[in-house]
Give the backbone structure.
Amino acid sequence: MWIYLIRHAETEGNLQRIVQMPNTPLSTRGHQQAQCLANAYSQVPISNIVSSDYARTQLTASALQKQVNCPMSFNELLRERHFGDLRGKAYDDIDHDFFALNYHPPGGESYSQFVDRIGKAWQQLTQLANQQKGDTVVVSHGLVLRCILTEILMLPSQLLTQTDIQNTSVTKVNLDDYTDIPMLCDVEHLNDMT
């Protein structure tokens, strides 16, 4: 049984390099990316889709759900790391490395709190996936997926510095063997975009 880990499609916040708010929608290009993803995975035997409850992930997941016609649910544990008072600010206007593992954003969550939350989300996801007959799709955020890949699946972090978790990138993981990852941050479905 497989679990597909997918990052949401592009937003204006991604383009403008802004720490995003929960209700940030997809850009025009993001809607196109979501549709390309949905078209490419329409024949995969997907039993269910679980998404973060933020707008950008819901919109990405909805495009796929319409194609495969399976149940879809939302899980707040899959939300992006909470950057508190930094939300809405441009990266260039923040005078420190807010992605640093030892940085605790004011009004937000520390990296260790984030890792604990994603660990709980992963437990829920694997329990759900193991009850399904087909594959499970998870639509979430870049830092969430990076956390799953490095902290739970234990991929070397240097591998991810060479591999970008782009918008709508897909990672395919064998639930019975976490070392079996035949697809890592794949965006081949975007090749036909103009």
User: Anything to note?
Assistant: The mean pLDDT is 94. The chain has one domain: 2-190.
